[in-house]
Amino acid sequence: MPGANINSVDINGMTPLILATSLEKIEIVRLLLDAGANRNIQDKEGKIALDYAVLSDHDGLISLLED
């Protein structure tokens, strides 16, 4: 959707990137990062997308988010 904010947050402070990471959707994470999603936004618990990748022990997501 043109004009949509890729870094919008829900009531829990979750961005599309955090949500896609928590659901282990690596292709969506890649698309969001390519579109300029901010990987350093924290949710209300203080976690960033990389924290969710580490919690799920998903090596592909971890390396993608560490780049």
UniProtKB/TrEMBL annotation:
The keyword Repeat applies. Keywords: ANK repeat, Repeat. Pfam families: Ank_2 (PF12796). PROSITE patterns: ANK_REP_REGION, ANK_REPEAT. InterPro entries: Ankyrin_rpt, Ankyrin_rpt-contain_sf. SMART domains: ANK (SM00248). ANK repeats lie at residues 12-44. This is Ankyrin repeat protein.
